[in-house]
Amino acid sequence: MVFVWSVLGGYAVVLLIMFFAQRNLLYPAATDVPRLLDHGLPGLQSIETEPELGLVLTHWFHPPAGPEQPVILYFHGNAGHRGDRVPKMRPLIDAGFGLLITGYRGYGGNPGKPSEEGLAADARSVHDWLMAQGYRAEQIVIFGESLGTAVSVALASERPPAALVLEAPPSSIADVAAAHYWYLPVRLLIHDAWDSQARIGAIQSPLLLLHGERDHVVPVRFGRKLYEAATQPKQALFHETAMHSDLLNYREVVETVVNFIRDKAAKRQ
User: Fold this and answer.
1) Beta strands 207-212 and 140-145: pairing type?
2) Which GO molecular function entries does the Swiss-Prot or TrEMBL record give (predicted)?
C-alpha cells in the first residue's frame, strides 16, 4: 500500500510540474541576440512592431527584388530565433522574393513571454507592418515551420494570403504532446493547444504542405492528418528521407517551394 501511494504521489508531482512548466517546454526560447552583420546579406534590415502597448519586437526584413515579387512572411519553430533561420531561407531571397522573419516575444532578445494568444498578436503585427509598407495581401505568402505552422494557420484563417506553405506541421500541439507524453492527460492540462486542424478548413488560399517521413519530433501522421482536413487547392510533398528540420536541405524541396510560390503568388496578383 505504501508503494502504491508513493507511485500515485510521484505521478501527481509530475502532473503539477508539467502543468506549470509546460510553456517552458513548448517555447524553449533562445535568448541570445542575433546580429545582422553576422550574415553579410546586403539589404537585410531590422524592423520593429508593437503588438501590445509598450511591447516592442524586433524582426528582420529583406525587400523583394522587384515591386511585383512575392513577400514571404515567415514564422519559425519553437527553438532558435530569427538569426539562425537566415541561411535556411536564403534560397527564397536568392529567388527574388522578399522575406520577413518574425521575431517572437521572448525570443532572440525580444521582451515578453510566449503564449498562443501572444504569438498570434505578434503575427498580426508583422502582417500589419507589411501592409503599411504598401505590400498587398495578394503578394504575401505565409510560410511556417513546425510550431510556426500553427502561428501561420491561425493568421491565414483571419487574413487570407496569396499562398500558405507549412513545413513539418502538427495537426495540433495537443496531438503531438499527447503522442510524446502518452502517460499524462495532456489534453486536460494544456494551455496552448494550437489546434490547426480546427482552423485549416476555413483557409481557401493555395496550400503546400511539406513533411519528412523520418520526422520524430512531429511525426508525419500529424502532417497527413492536417492535409486531409485542408481544402483545395492543396498539394503535399512527403519526403521519404527528411527528418524534422532538414527539409530545405534537399534541392528538390527548395525547387518545389520556389516554383509553388512563383506560380500561386503570380496568379493572385
Assistant:
1) unpaired
2) hydrolase activity
206 is written with which cell numbers? 493555395
Nearest Cα residue to 210 out of 229, 234, 194, 231: 234
How are beta strands 55-62 and 140-145 bridged, if at all?
unpaired
Report phi then psi at 5, rounded to 5.
-65, -35
Please, what are the domains in the chain? 2-268 (3.40.50.1820)
Helix pair angle (86-94, 251-268), 10° resolution:
50
Which residues in the chain come in under a pLDDT of 50?
Answer: 3-5, 7-8, 14, 16, 20
- Separation between Cα atoms, residue 177 and residue 193, nearest integer Å: 9
Predicted confidence at residue 78, as pLDDT, reads: 85
Residue 160: all three cell numbers together:
487570407
> If we measure between CA atoms, which residue out of 215, 213, 210, 212 comes closest to residue 255?
210
Rg of the Cα atoms in the chain: 19
3-state secondary structure of 213: coil
Spatial CB neighbours of 256, under 8 Å, sequence gap ≥ 6:
208, 210, 237
Looking at residue 19, its pLDDT comes to: 52
Instruction: For cell 501590445, name the residue.
Output: 52
